[in-house]
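Section 5.1 Outputs to date
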Amino acid sequence: MNRPILALAIAATLGLHQGIAAELPSGGALNAGIAEKIGSDEELKSIVLQLGDPTTEMAALRRLIKFSGFFLYEGSVHLVTDDQAADELRRAAARAVRSHANPDSVRRALDDDDRDVRFWGVMSFGFTFGETKPWEPLLPRLEEIASRDADAGVRSEAIRRLRYHEAGAAFLTSLQTSTNETDPWVLMMLLRFDSQKPEVRTRWYARAIQIFSGKDEALRLQWLNYILLNASNPITATMWRIEADPALVDSLRQIERMGSQKEQDLASKALLALATSAQPNGAANRSQPIRSETNSTSGAAGSGR
C-alpha cells in the first residue's frame, strides 16, 4: 500500500481530519516509520529497555513514536505496506509505546517540544468511565493544549479528550466563547458541529462569516479550502456537512466579487460545491469531513480519528 493510501486509511480509522492524505506532514504521527529507522528486533528491544530509565525515557519514547508512525494508531484497520517485516517491527514498537501510556509518561509527553510526542500524549490521555481520577491532575495541561497548542491536530484531539472529564467539559464550554481559535476543523470539534442541529451549526457559520470579513487573507483561504473540500467530499457524513447557509453563501459571494484572484476562484468553487451537495443525490454515503491542511497536524495522523 503506498503512503497516500495508507494515510487515508488511517485517517478514516482515527477520525482525525488533518488534511488530504498526500499532504500529511513528513515526520508526523502518520509518517509510517520514514522519519526514524530501527533495523532489527534486537535494536528495538534495546530502545524499549531505555523506557525504564528516567534519563533515557523521553528520547527512547520519541524514537519509538516516530518509528511506529501510522501503526501507533492502527485501530481496527490492519495496515500493510510493501515491507511486511518492517510492518511487524513497527507494530511491535507501537505496542511498546501503548504499554507505556501511564499518567507520568503522558505528563512528560504533553510537555515535550515535539509535536508527535505531544500528540501521542493527548491520544493516550485516559478517559475510560470510572478510571479518570488518576488523570485529573493533568487536566490543566490538557486544557492549555486545547486552547494554545501550535498544532491544530493536537488541539482538536485535546478537545475530544476533555469532553470525557467533567472539569474538562466545563472548560470547553467557556472556551467556546473565545474568538482565539481560528482553525475550521478545531472549531467544528469545539462547537460540536452538527448540520442537523441549527443552534450548533449557526455558531460555526457565524464564525466563518467573521473570518471572511477579517483582514487575514491566509486565514480566509484556509476556510475557503475547508468549505470546498467538505462540500465536495462525496463521503462526508450528513452531520458534518457544511450546507448552503444563506448568510454563509452571501459572504462567499462577496469574496467571489471582491477578493483576491485566488480567493475568487476558491469562493466560486465552494459555491458550486455547496449548490451541488444540496441536490437530492449529492450527499449519499458520506463519512467524516476532510480538513484542508495549512499547518502541521493533526494527523495526523488522521483518524478520527
